[in-house]
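ok so i was messing around last nite and threw this chain in just to see what happens. nothing serious, just curious
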Amino acid sequence: MSQTIAVLKGDGIGPEIMDATLRVLDALECGLKYEFFDAGLTALEKHGTLVPAETLEAIEKYRVALKGPLTTPVGKGFSSINVQLRRHFDLYANVRPALSFPGTRSRYDEIDLITVRENTEGAYLSEGQTLSYDGETALSSIRVTRKGSERILRYAFELARQRGRRKVTAVHKANIIKTSSGLFLEVAREVAEEYPDIEFQEMIVDNACMQLVMDPQQFDVVVTTNLFGDILSDLCAGLVGGLGLAPGSNIGTDTAIFEAVHGSAPDIAGKKIANPCALLLAAADMLDHLGMMDKGTQIRDTIRQVLETARDQVTPDMGGSGTTDTFAEALVSALRND
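result:
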């Protein structure tokens, strides 16, 4: 049975890494069909809006989207495209794996952890932000709900159980922020009791940052609120070599959007040196989501194989002398020879 997905190629290097990713997906013979839609600067030029209604309707129809990096223009009047998509589809879970690969600039080996970030509330709400008339005082609100906390925590524990993970760490600042962070921790303890097969750990966010740098292998699944998750997920990307190896999944009840979390890198667009790994790994996570976990594993294993055996074909940021296209060619060749 075929599955149609909405594809947003993105801005800057987006089309280049998306083309490479789709070549790999085709080589896997996943039965996927693609429908292409505009978003970002391309959409703004064509349609006068960053996210056309047609794009939103397509994502709602197909329920799964693969998205390249999008550019939100700097200046007033433009809100973050990613925030728009998360709010529109209530994509409450942001899932960021950090997985070690050979040939990176990482100081660590054998990192395999997942950050699960609440994606729709917390400190990132535009409502409740004010600036005094004299410009001297800024105020913002942190909104954490029991419902929002429970569903992200339950998602993290269910993910751990499904993936055979041994431990969930809830990261908080309840010692100081006793209301919003305190509520999150309270709900974390309640939910943890329902999963006796999963080890539960709670950790204050500043200690979590230190522990991640000192001994990242102690972590398995990390679940936390919006602001802390935003920071920690990038820290974890740094443990495995940077955002070039960082996929992201935005999961809701009915819809899921998979993306490379790095930017559109307009300075290297068109030079064919962009590393497609982040989007490839996002595609692997998408295949997991669609029930094709063996195919997702094939992508990850093949990336590892090419990084080990075809150094001349990988992109310069990975220490190679190849291009986006030669990287994709090496991956396709390795898949067909399996």
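not much to say yet. The longest strand covers residues 93-99.
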